[in-house]
Design a protein that fits this description.
This protein has about 160 residues and is mainly β. The chain has helices at about 15, 50-55, 150-155; strands at about 25, 35, 40-45, 60-65, 70, 80, 90-95, 100-105, 110-115, 125-130.
């Protein structure tokens, strides 16, 4: 199988073809919600927006995958809510049993963000960028880590593995 590139193989085609084995797995704190990623994962972005701050108590750290590559196992405790101040009309998901923040998805988005801390190790991922830094809390500081910030993220090519 080749991706939708007129027969040209992309680097992640083998992940999709061998989807019997998940690329990654994860769960909430109590285990009431489980999931598997059956395709490539995007490296982690650190989000400094006010919604992520209120959602997690600090910055948000999210990997991502295409919606069709996320297989949610146990779902009885999974609850989606609209993210009220989101410019992208996003929604967020959490576990109703333990409160773990799990997913973020823009309206009509092809990808779903996965809270990095819910992924089972090893992930093979790395932090790739800081986003929404213009919304930085007064107590938050961007480390001098050499990673791209807000203005560069539009052109940034973040690694998928």
């Amino acid at each position: 199988m080749c991706s939708e590139t007129r027969g040209i193989r992309r680097f992640y085609d083998s992940f999709v073809e061998n989807a019997a084995e998940p690329r990654a797995t994860g769960r909430c704190l109590c285990g009431a919600v489980t999931y598997a990623v059956r395709g490539p994962l995007r490296d982690i972005v650190i989000c400094h927006c006010s919604e992520c701050r209120r959602w997690s108590g600090t910055t948000g750290a999210f990997a991502a995958t295409r919606v069709e590559h996320l297989a949610i196992g146990k779902t009885a405790a999974l609850h989606w809510i609209d993210s009220p101040e989101s410019a992208r009309r996003a929604r967020r998901a959490f576990c109703t049993e333990c409160g773990s923040s799990l997913f973020w998805q823009a309206a009509d988005g092809e990808r779903v963000g996965i809270a990095a801390g819910t992924l089972d190790p090893p992930t093979g991922l790395r932090v790739a960028a800081h986003i929404y830094t213009r919304h930085l809390a007064d107590w938050d500081e961007i480390p001098d880590d050499g990673l791209p910030h807000e203005s560069a993220t539009a052109e940034l090519e973040i690694r998928w593995t």
